[in-house]
Write a structure and sequence with these properties.
Blueprint (H helix, E strand, L loop, with lengths): L1 H15 L20 H12 L7 H13 L4 E5 L2 H11 L15 E5 L4 H9 L3 E5 L13 H4 L4 E7 L8 H11 L2 E5 L7 E2 L2 E2 L6 E5 L12 E5 L2 H11 L47 H11 L2 H19 L6 E2 L7 E2 L5 E5 L7 H10 L5 E2 L17 E2 L4 H9 E4 L7 H16 L3
Parallel strand pairs: 2-3, 2-4, 3-14, 4-5, 5-8
Antiparallel strand pairs: 1-9, 6-7, 6-11, 8-9, 10-12, 12-15, 13-15
Helix pairs in contact: 1-2, 2-9, 3-9, 4-5, 4-8, 10-13, 11-13
């Protein structure tokens, strides 16, 4: 009966067809999910188990994705933002002794980016220390790291923005020199590399997002990755209600001493499933989400190849417009896994950033700003305790002059030609 249902699902997908995006007629999104029949089949297959919470597909995905990212451990969570929360919360565990991050400690980050890279720092009572980014890579300016350091510094938490890796080797060396933690937010950058090594492997702990806009999707979802067993165990506790027990969902007594533990101030033999060692959450995914991830992961190398090819093609198509716009540069030593194509509007352009994005949107081309721009100018950080290093010149350029367009795998040369044509029409004043 299951096979009959799955065959019908296959027929349904094939009959429904895949809508093509026609330039000038249909809206060209900046990003989006790319789904085939195997994706739909996996989701339905998981639903027929009627297990619904984390199960066999989650276990398979965690193993396979850890291997892809060159990590020992992968823990699925319900979003990339939750992954950042769990990753940072992990470093606040008393199990880390003197290296435990505490309220009042400082964490170096960048001011140009997405708020949920920084929010966990604030949510745990720590102080974000904001530094600038480079002009054309939009990545952390590593020359500012020593200026940002203080006696209160405990960690660096920064993202590989838009799939372009930052100089993770330099940040790792800085952290090693001063015994700081390093958290790599790879939510935009699954599969990117620096110095020949996969992003995420430089940090003590790393995060990835599976939101529909990202490289692969689970609808919603994210992951925490690490090579350290202690950090994996703490992160698992933080994700799973803060419990001390490490039994997988639906299984009891993995330690063979469920009623044999002895904790101070608790009755002897208290059920280990209800012993809590951290202030945690429930941030697990459903197995249907994981099933979609299992299928999507098989296509990730192809998705990355398509994104990078689209990026290269669009850059070539826009190269003659550099009197008006600055085009993005891959970080030296990096191998990007491009999430989007950022463009900086120069003062010499007859049209400013807002005029260009409004023109493109009117012509059914999706645009996005580089996330929050300068976080310090956002309402949520007006009254947050923070420290700022330097004048953040390039971060303000990001806020005022940068936007990005799509290079995701559903786009073809005809879409990129149309995007380039409309940008040229706008900046050159063509009719």
């Amino acid at each position: 009966m299951r096979e009959e249902i799955l065959n019908k699902v296959r027929e349904y997908f094939q009959a429904s067809g895949q809508k093509k995006i026609v330039p000038g007629v249909d809206y060209i999104p900046v990003s989006g999910k790319v789904i085939d029949e195997e994706d739909l089949l996996n989701v339905v297959d998981a639903s027929l188990d009627m297990w619904f919470t984390t199960g066999r597909f989650a276990k398979e995905f965690e193993k396979s994705f850890a291997e892809f990212m060159h990590q020992r451990y992968c823990l699925l969570v319900n979003s990339g933002s939750s992954a950042n929360l769990v990753a940072f919360a992990t470093l606040t565990s008393p199990l880390l002794g003197d290296r435990m991050v505490k309220a009042g400690d400082e964490v170096i980050t960048v001011a140009a980016g997405f708020p949920t890279t920084v929010n966990p720092i604030v949510q745990h009572g720590c102080v974000p220390v904001f530094i600038d980014v480079e002009r054309d890579t939009h990545q952390i300016d590593i020359t500012k790291l020593e200026d940002a350091r203080s006696a209160k510094t405990k960690a660096v938490m920064v993202a590989h923005t838009l799939g372009n890796p930052f100089n993770a080797k330099a940040v790792r060396e800085f952290c090693d020199k001063h015994n700081f933690w390093m958290i790599e937010d790879c939510c935009d950058a699954a599969g990117a590399k620096f110095d020949g090594k996969m992003v995420g492997t430089f940090g003590d702990i790393a995060t990835v997002s599976f939101y529909p806009a990202h490289h692969i999707t689970m609808g919603e979802g994210g992951a925490v990755l690490t090579n350290e067993h202690k950090l994996k165990k703490i992160a698992e506790s933080m994700r799973d209600w803060g419990r001390d027990c490490w039994c997988p969902t639906g299984k009891d007594n993995s330690c063979n001493k469920r009623f044999g533990w002895d904790f101070e101030d608790m009755p002897a033999g208290y059920d280990h499933k209800y012993v809590y060692s951290h202030v945690g959450y429930n941030l697990k995914v459903s197995d249907m989400q994981a099933a979609l991830g299992v299928s999507q992961l098989k296509k990730l190398p192809g998705f990355i190849k398509a994104r990078n090819a689209n990026f290269k093609y669009l850059k070539q198509k826009l190269s003659h417009l550099q009197d008006y716009i600055s085009l993005p540069e891959e970080t030296k030593g990096g191998e990007a896994s491009w999430f989007g194509f950022p463009i900086t509007v120069k003062p010499s352009s007859p049209k400013n950033r807002n005029e260009i994005t409004q023109f493109l949107e009117k012509n059914k081309i999706g645009t996005r700003l580089l996330f929050a721009g300068n976080l310090l100018r956002q309402p949520l950080y007006k009254h947050v305790e923070k420290r700022v290093v330097g004048d953040l010149t390039n971060t303000d350029i990001v806020m005022n002059d940068v936007f990005w367009v799509g290079v995701y795998p559903a786009l073809r040369e005809e879409h990129l030609d149309y995007i380039a044509l409309k940008i040229e029409e706008c900046v050159k004043g063509s009719k």
